[in-house]
Design brief:
The complex is a heterodimer of chains A (about 425) and B (about 180).
Chain A lengths: L10 H4 L1 H9 L2 H11 L1 E3 L8 H20 L9 H10 L4 H28 L8 H23 L4 H13 L7 H9 L6 H32 L15 E3 H26 L29 H9 L3 H13 L4 H4 L13 H20 L4 H28 L20
Antiparallel strand pairs in A: 1-2
Chain B lengths: L1 H10 L1 H33 L4 H5 L3 E4 L8 E6 L2 E7 L2 H9 L20 E5 L22 E5 L4 E4 L4 E3 L11 E5 L2 E4 L1
Antiparallel strand pairs in B: 1-9, 2-3, 3-4, 5-6, 6-7, 8-9
The chains are: A mainly alpha (about 425), B alpha+beta (about 180).
Chain lengths: ~425, ~180
């Protein structure tokens, strides 16, 4: 029953043609090792569904995006109208656009849960640092892609979002203005900017797909972490990926699709900003400009610091700090389940991110500004102070001997 | 899975196998319907959009066209020939025996008023626009049109007479709005 990696006694490999091909290019056997036999810890919870959900969302975004690109015109005079044409005239264009538009939000929901899962169970710790890094690279690429995609409909928020975000780079001394002009291809956000954003928006998802490949490669090298945060100690601790996790992942996708379809069919615009249904006007900034919800925490961090350059550095730093996390966390125990202090600190950090999201959506004054400032301070304190310190002062609970121990006496099946 | 089969053996393997097959096929069928209904909107989106279909008719004024002249108009993005035929051309088209034609069709079936020939100007071979509408262009061996791409000859009724094209030039749906105006499409 349990297929071990390296075994090639599957029915498919008995086929002479498949065997002939596989001896020349081991495509079938590689797919079998990676997608079917891959020994997976048997105790994964539903929090482990979000990796495959993220992969699913990448496919959804690429497919819908390719079809939208068949109808979209990347020119300042036609972009807005071509999107309206997709909504009104193209057969099922409304559906494809709403899947794509809400898909961006769904992608971020799934990926953020995936990241927090990793934070809770210590999935970033040795030997999975490179796996973690690749995940951050994917997140950064996703942000760039989402930002440029949001510019394409050429609404008011598209235009002014693009103006604000590109101007971030002007904060850097000496080279700032040069970089901004280079990004724009002119002296303001205009047609050259829209053209290159479309080009890159089409390119980056495929770059993401390539990094996802590396991410999965790294995963299959170090093997999956699990809710106990201890390594698989023998064949009794793991089950083959197929059919056990393929079917569980499919079930997760089905449940997730219900959630996703609710937005697409019943509330397609609640996650967006109405101002983006007004065509871009380079002569008038909207009264209140906010990014999409998934950028709000970083936006709050940016605005909480009353200095242009430091604000920009803090904003980028809030993401780049994740690269150092494997070394800032000094505890040797992975899973928060066995870390009595970190367990609470984790939720405090989640709360901090929620508070920053809330503050990022409000005008930067009064209470929201103070929430953003305290939130920003705590955000960095979490990484630079709390994580290193609790690793030393915390007394972790005793770890089980193996994954099987908690359920089977002695850990032997 | 091994355990389930063993339990099944106690209860009667045959029943269990049937249930499994049934569930497997049911799940497969539901999956196929689901995949199909997801694929359809995407395929459909590649078909002409509502605004493209809305542009599917064109009005043409016949007043400026002299006898023996022809013009090219654009209908649904395609060249469409409107030709005011001379008496000689009409007679020539009418008297050809149908058995001489690769795609037999009487001239009377291709026109509403013999003087006016309206055909889609797309060669039925591989889609080039045949020459012969403008003054001075070659009209082929049968005085109609000549396709420069692969040498198809059309007669004064737009019927294929010689060359690789399999069919006559298509007659689009059209109607006389007034005596001097037609609406194509």
């Amino acid at each position: 029953m349990s297929a071990t990696p390296g075994s090639s006694s599957s029915p498919l490999m008995n086929n002479k043609l498949v065997k002939w091909f596989d001896e020349r290019l081991p495509l079938v056997s590689t797919m079998q090792h990676a997608g079917m036999e891959y020994p997976t810890p048997k105790n994964l919870s539903y929090w482990w569904n979000f990796g495959s959900l993220a992969g699913f969302m990448l496919v959804v975004m690429i497919v819908t995006g390719i079809f939208l690109a068949m109808h979209y015109t990347p020119h300042v005079d036609y972009a807005f109208a071509s999107v309206e044409r997709i909504m009104r005239d193209v057969n099922y264009g409304w559906l494809i656009r709403y899947i794509h538009m809400n898909g961006a939000s769904m992608f971020f929901i799934v990926v953020y849960i995936h990241v927090f899962r990793g934070l809770y169970y210590g999935s970033y710790k040795s030997p999975r640092e490179v796996l973690w890094w690749l995940g951050i690279v994917i997140l950064l690429l996703m942000m760039a892609t989402a930002f440029m995609g949001y510019v394409l409909p050429w609404g008011q928020m598209s235009f002014w979002g693009a103006t604000v975000i590109t101007n971030l780079f002007s904060a850097f001394p000496f080279v700032g203005d040069f970089i901004v002009t280079l990004l724009w291809g002119g002296f303001a956000v205009d047609n050259p900017t829209l053209n290159r954003f479309f080009s890159l928006h089409y390119l980056l998802p495929f770059v993401i797909a390539a990094v996802v490949f590396l991410h999965i490669w790294a995963l299959h090298t170090t093997k999956s972490n699990n809710p106990l945060g201890i390594e698989v100690s023998g064949p009794q601790d793991s089950i083959p990926f197929h059919p056990y996790y393929t079917v569980k992942d499919l079930y997760g996708i089905a449940v997730f699709l219900i959630f996703y379809a609710m937005f697409v069919f019943f509330a397609p615009n609640v996650l967006g900003d109405v101002a983006n249904y007004i065509e871009a006007n380079p002569l008038q900034t909207p009264a209140h400009i906010v990014p999409e919800w998934y950028f709000l925490p970083y936006y709050a961090i940016l605005r909480s610091i009353p200095d242009k350059l430091l604000g920009v550095i803090a904003m980028f730093g809030s993401l780049l700090i994740l690269f150092l996390l494997p070394w800032l966390d000094t505890s040797r125990v992975r899973s928060a389940r066995f870390r009595p202090i970190y367990k609470w600190v984790f939720w405090l950090f989640v709360l901090d991110c929620v508070a920053l999201t809330w503050a990022g959506a409000k005008p930067p004054e009064g209470l929201p500004l103070w929430v953003a400032r305290i939130g920003t301070f705590y955000y960095f304190a979490h990484f630079f102070v709390v994580m290193p310190v609790i690793g030393f002062i915390e007394r972790p609970l005793a770890l089980p001997k193996s994954i099987s121990t908690p359920v089977l006496a002695g850990g032997k099946a | 899975m091994a355990e389930t089969v063993k339990t099944g053996a106690a209860a009667g393997v045959h029943d269990d196998a049937n249930r499994r097959d049934f569930l497997f096929m049911l799940a497969g069928a539901a999956g196929a319907v689901g995949a199909g209904s997801v694929a359809w909107p995407f395929i459909s989106s590649m078909n002409p959009a509502a605004d493209t279909l809305a542009l599917s008719s064109t009005e043409v004024s016949l007043a400026p066209i002299q006898e023996g002249q022809a013009i090219t108009v654009k209908w649904r993005g395609k060249a469409t020939f409107v030709r005011r035929r001379t008496k000689a051309e009409i007679d020539e088209a009418a008297k050809v025996p149908l058995k001489d034609l690769p795609d037999p069709q009487a001239d009377s079936a291709r026109v509403k008023k013999p003087e006016w020939l309206i055909v889609v100007g797309v060669c039925t071979h591989l889609g080039c626009i045949p020459l012969g509408t403008k003054q001075g262009e070659p009209r082929g061996d049968y005085g109609g049109w000549f396709c420069p791409c692969h040498g198809s000859h059309y007669d004064t009724s737009g019927r294929i007479r010689k060359g690789p094209a399999p069919l006559n030039l298509a007659v689009p749906p059209y109607a006389f709005v007034t005596d001097t105006t037609i609406k194509i499409g």
